[in-house]
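To close the section, here is one more complete example, presented without commentary so you can practise reading it yourself. The ligand is biotin.
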Amino acid sequence: MTAPLAFEIHRMKETPSTNIVAKDLARQTGKEGIVVIAETQTQGRGRGKKDWASPAGGLYLSVTLNAASPKHLTDLPLLAGVAVCQAVTQLLPKQFDVSVKWPNDILVGMKKVAGILCETVEGALGVVGIGINVNTGAEPLLPFMRNSFKATSFTLECGGGAFDLTKVSDMVLKKLSGIYDIYRSEGFPAVRYLWEKNCQLVGKKVEFTESPTQKQVGTLLGIDDTGALVLATPEGEKSRFYAGEITCYWPST
Ligand code: BTN
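Output:
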């Protein structure tokens, strides 16, 4: 049996990006389980070269994990998405609908509350960077309100109040460690099952945008063993997507 992941936590007041610090520590130590948490980021980065608003009140956390093979690299983002989804579900009051959105955005009431940026480090490690809008007010999120899945935060959804960020990071690490154990013992099929179970868009009609000129509408079936998103097209075929994002969904389907 593999020993559970042991975390070594580094806390910082401010940094350009916790992913950059975690990548440096990964290169220096070669260890997995190194966690970097910052109160603010000055150059928070999102997927697709987008910015990630990182004012005080959010959780900005990066962790190093084994990424010895190309398959690890495609599995880690989905695995991390499930862990964050489980953590958010546990932390928010029961009435909230929490979901993963392919590949690893976390939605609350179909609005984006968290995102994950995985990056590779030379050698056998990857860095999983997690951003959660916890006590984030409306103003820093305004530039992201026009996105197809608008930005939100714990505090905005709950109508005020402050969440304890240490409790949030502890819960994220607990869920990450749990799912990482499952992944190491049972492999990706167990993660795939949990991802689909935590995705409220399964069975819904969605629009998938691969590029500004390539869009596909279909019913979301789930993910396959490679982590690709699988849609049933109106012509009754299965389409697989490896890059791009869901840009629209029809709630009533
Ligand atoms: C996305 O949805 O586009 C991914 C956002 C990832 C943000 C986190 S915050 C911690 C880590 N450091 C970064 O600069 N980015 C990730």
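Once you have examined the tokens, check your reading against these statements. Residues 70-91 form the longest helix (22 residues). Residues 17-19, 41, 44-47, 50, 52, 60-62, 105, 115-117, 129-131 surround biotin (CB under 6 Å).
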